[in-house]
Amino acid sequence: MPPEKLLFGTAGVPRSSAGRNSAAGIERVRELGLDCMELEFVQGVRMKEKGAKNVFEASKKQGIALSVHAPYYINLNSPEEEKLKASMERIYQSARIGSLCGARSVVLHAAFYQKSSKESVYAKVAKALGELTGKLRDEEIPAVLRPETMGKRSQFGTLEEVLALSAEIEGVMPCLDFSHMHAREGRDNSYPEFKAILDRVEEELGKEGLSNMHMHVSGIEYGKNGEKKHLVLEESDFNYMELLKALKEFRVKGLVICESPNLEEDALLLKKSYESI
């Protein structure tokens, strides 16, 4: 079930956690007064079923919502059949193990344009995600695949692309990385622009689009080709207060995952700032 409010948490185990495993991270998230954590499978899905059970029990005990970030090594536009199959397997395993942990959202970096047209890349990504969501339904794996808005112009993942996929394919919803959207074109960093993005989400996906959102927020450094690296919020130009005002006005529900280098400090800043509005 989607959360009944906006939840704030970290991308991975908080830096201040004494233990570096996911269960310890979940406990630390609760101690900090945060609400959720994204399991970072970004270097590969190395968690086994026994470990997933431990994570599930920890999240249930602590009342912490979970999501998953699939491995970085994914390119659904790969011209090599072997690499395409490997990409799809990584997404599938992220969903399978993530669901055993109790996570329902699987964030993924879908593809690179390379030398292909944007239209052909979209078609390939849509075909792959359609096959994957069908397999997850057949196996009764309750996971939603969430292609992320990406910060580099060489990457598939504009707002328009992820919303179109979400409207077209059952079992697909967007992961809106607001910092990436800002970095990609140097825009999308004011209240009217954040409002326009949320208007677009509602227009394409209806009320569910706003009541079941998954978001990434951080400071970000960028140049002419888009994202360079993540920054601490206060060391960046990202206008997080205006974003939070828009999220509150639209009564958005879901998860806000902080990817700043200082993780829990900025996650707490976001939560406290939101509650102060």
Can you give me a brief rundown of this structure?
With 277 residues, the chain is of the alpha/beta class. 46% of the residues lie in helices and 17% in strands. Helix 3 crosses helix 4 (118-138).
Strand order of the largest sheet: 5-4-3-2-1-10-7-6
* Helix share, percent: 40-55%
What separation lies between the terminal Cα atoms? 26 Å
Q: Provide the structure class.
A: alpha/beta
Largest sheet: 8 strands, parallel
> Average pLDDT, to the nearest integer?
97
Number of strands: 10
> What is Rg?
17 Å
Morphology call: globular
Strand content: 15-25%
Q: What's the order of the H and E elements?
A: EHEHEHEHEHEHHHEEEHEH
Number of helices: 10
Low-confidence stretches: none
How would you describe this protein?
Helix content is 46%, strand content 17%. It is α/β, with parallel strands linked by helices and 277 residues long. The protein has an eight-stranded parallel beta sheet. 50% of the residues are buried.
Keywords:
8-stranded parallel beta sheet, alpha/beta, 277 residues, globular, 10 helices
